Amino acid sequence: MAAPTYSPATPGNLMAAISIAASSERAVPYNISTKFEAHVTCHSQMGGTVAATTGVRFEVYQYYGSTTTTASSSAGATSISVASATGIVKGARLGIWDATNGGEILEVSNVSGTTLTVAATKYNHTNGANVYVIETTPTITVQPGPNSGNYAADKVYSKMIQFGTGLWFVRAVNLDASNAHTVELSAATIDAVS
Fold it and tell me: How far apart are CA 171 and CA 118, in angstroms?
């Protein structure tokens, strides 16, 4: 049997190191529909004075539909206009992402034509931003942390997650209400198995 075809990770190739404000999030889509599986290493570096109950949680959602925005939106917007609302219903969760501002997850509270009422956005989003219809509960949830004891400031915690072929949306949530944390996602893939 031939060896699998493997593409190694490089630091930050899925999400470059980015600071996430206290109680905030960042997210990124990850299309591995032409791969066998992915290994994603989730890195988080704690900032400030970190309490034992905080850290960063990483969530992986499968997405099953997509569209784009038809207008830009500012942080705090509670409605977004999309090219198509097919498959988007009240209560749906959406991943919204653009290369300029990054991504986040929003819940839909109303659909009127192609205008979606959502929870207030945390970030600006450009016209043409990608909008993904995602599952309501993450397929995978991990929270890298210390082997024992409490989190420590300026220390890196990592955890590798593995998932199969598909269309995914990966979110990092800062659980700390007082401090920003830096996160990075590095992905390797098994491209084929002979």
Answer: 18
pLDDT tens, position by position, 41-91: 999 887 766 555 578 999 999 999 999 999 999 999 999 999 999 999 999
- Cα 115 to Cα 65: distance, rounded to the nearest angstrom: 17
What is the residue type of 143?
Answer: Q
Query: Which segments within the chain are labelled E, that is strand?
Result: 5-7, 15-20, 25-31, 37-45, 56-68, 79-81, 93-98, 102-112, 115-118, 130-134, 140-142, 156-164, 167-174, 181-192
Cβ count within 10 A of residue 83: 13
For 82, 108, 142, the CA distances from 112, given in Å and listed in that order, are 11, 11, 35
Largest CA distance in the chain: 54
Helix residue ranges per DSSP H, the chain: none
Distance from the first to the final alpha carbon of the chain:
7
Instruction: Give the pLDDT mean for 159-181.
Output: 91
Which residues make beta-bridge pairs with 158?
Answer: 43
